[in-house]
Specification:
Layout: H1 3-6, H2 17-23, H3 37-47, H4 52-62, H5 70-78, H6 84-88, H7 92-102, H8 106-115, H9 121-124, H10 131-147, H11 160-176, H12 187-194, H13 203-215, H14 219-230, H15 235-242, H16 246-271, H17 276-298
Length: about 300
């Protein structure tokens, strides 16, 4: 792909990437409406507690060159968390930056580009190793987040950088066209998690059963499994990648697991002649290995 080819990407802006950040007309949000007294009390209860207060103070301290009025950010958080427990799980630093970008702060937009969007390259290398293509996708992502206002869709349930990379993968897949809407799923990697090659006692037959079950899934559902268990995507990142709601992403992931379990259960009983209790025991073992692989990935630096 040449630099001239990159200009055909959807939503491609004409200027260079640095000019995109400084010249885009960032979408601004309507003024936050006045809340009732009871809603305001609930807000103070959520925002005013420790350790949430420390998180907010840290976000403000880390914000270099941009700021969000406290009442605006409180309203922003109120839409995304209803309790201390919920708020404590969010990426407050990322939400503060997203809020500033959504409300038209040009310095925040520059930070978003330099510290987040500029780092999408490694997430695209399995699609195309091409600097011009990466820069083109970078411009598309900036256009989507800042001009179209998609940054407001970041709910803070995962790291902002990973969320931005999911948006970039989706933009890259769109740019490459229908032929690569979904990369080939690495069945061997999934199988190695479910049934390690060193596993004794009918390991090959068991791998064959699970391979058939995975192979029967639609490509997109296999993609959900791969990204969730092998690439450690969060539900929010899956939603960003597949352009669906978080609830829909959760349902599709559950559907993929259920279909694999159903097919595997039937094949284990039919082909390996296992009893009902043996089948359920085997399924629990396979599921636990997937969960352990996800936990192990989470602890990696």
């Amino acid at each position: 792909m040449t630099a001239s080819d990159s200009s055909s990407l959807p939503l491609m802006v004409a200027s260079s990437v640095p000019r995109v950040v400084t010249s885009v007309a960032v979408v601004t949000q309507p003024e936050v409406p006045r809340r009732t007294r009871s809603a305001a009390c609930r807000t103070r209860a959520v925002i005013g507690s420790d350790p949430v207060r420390r998180q907010l103070e840290r976000a403000v301290a880390k914000a270099r060159g941009f700021a969000v009025p406290r009442e605006v950010f409180e309203a922003w958080l109120r839409e995304r968390a209803k309790s201390d427990d919920e708020l404590a799980k969010l990426d407050v630093d990322g939400l503060y930056l997203a809020c500033a970008c959504a409300h038209g702060d040009a310095n925040a937009a520059r930070v978003l580009d330099e510290q987040y969007v500029s780092k999408i390259g490694p997430a695209l290398t399995h699609l195309r190793r091409d600097d011009a293509f990466t820069q083109a996708v970078r411009s598309v992502v900036l256009e989507s987040l800042l001009v179209q206002g998609r940054i407001a869709g970041y709910a803070g349930r995962g790291d902002l950088l990973r969320w931005v990379r999911a948006v970039a993968i989706r933009a890259a897949l769109d740019a490459l066209g229908g032929a690569r809407r979904e990369e080939p799923v690495e069945l061997e990697r999934l199988l190695d998690v479910a049934v390690p090659p060193s596993e004794p006692d009918d390991a090959e037959r068991l791998r064959g059963v699970i391979a058939s079950a995975l192979g029967a899934l639609p490509d997109e559902l296999r993609g959900y499994l791969r990204r969730y268990y092998l690439e450690h995507f969060t539900l929010e990142e899956l939603a960003a990648l597949y352009r669906v709601s978080i609830a829909t992403a959760s349902r599709r992931l559950a559907a993929a697991r259920e279909q694999v379990a159903k097919e595997t259960r039937a094949r284990l009983a039919r082909e390996l002649k296992l009893t009902g209790a043996e089948v359920e025991s085997m399924l629990q073992l396979v599921q636990s290995r997937f969960e352990l692989s996800r936990s192990a990935l989470k602890t990696k630096p």
